[in-house]
Amino acid sequence: MSIYLPPVHTGLQILYADDALLVVDKPAGLLSVPGRGADKQDCLISRVQAEFPEALTVHRLDMGTSGIMVLARGKAMERALSILFQTRKVYKRYEAVVAGRMLHAVGEINLPLITDWPNRPRQMVSFELGKPSCTGYQVLGYDVAMDTSRVGLEPVTGRSHQLRVHLQALGHPILGDDLYASPEICAKAERLLLHATAIRFPHPLMGEEVVVSSTVPF
Q: Which among 22, 64, 101, 160 has most CB atoms closer than 10 A?
């Protein structure tokens, strides 16, 4: 069992804030919400609630993933934002570095996903039992020396580990992925090279579009 060593808290990276919601930049290696056990209580929401006690989560990022997270300010906004996520009114974009050269510059991955119960928290492709899952992608560049591709990702659905499993299923696991990449590919990076880089959604109170971006740190 690996030891949880969250990054040192050097202050919140707030990308957007108003009376209804916050958009913050989560560092890699930090849980979105508390885990099981006293050693896993340091997380993004606890750090945010230290400054904004009314803040509530409406979605999550994997511990290894960095980037944009939206937080509601109060119960009413939690409900309103949750509905936006559930009805797919929220556009999200990620960037990743994956192993190998991808065959197509632009494409869509449609592979149904389900929890791999004997190996939780792993997910897996299952055409019999999986839930429909769709990811659009665009190759942004190829590094010949490293034999890696930089990829922009746009999840249509929001399944657990969706981007990681979809890319692994294509034969291009994300560097630094300790669940879905081989030990050799995992070891090519000190962290999971996956970052939530942009989000766009209608403001739950005012209706106008909120657009936020975050610089990719790798």
A: 22
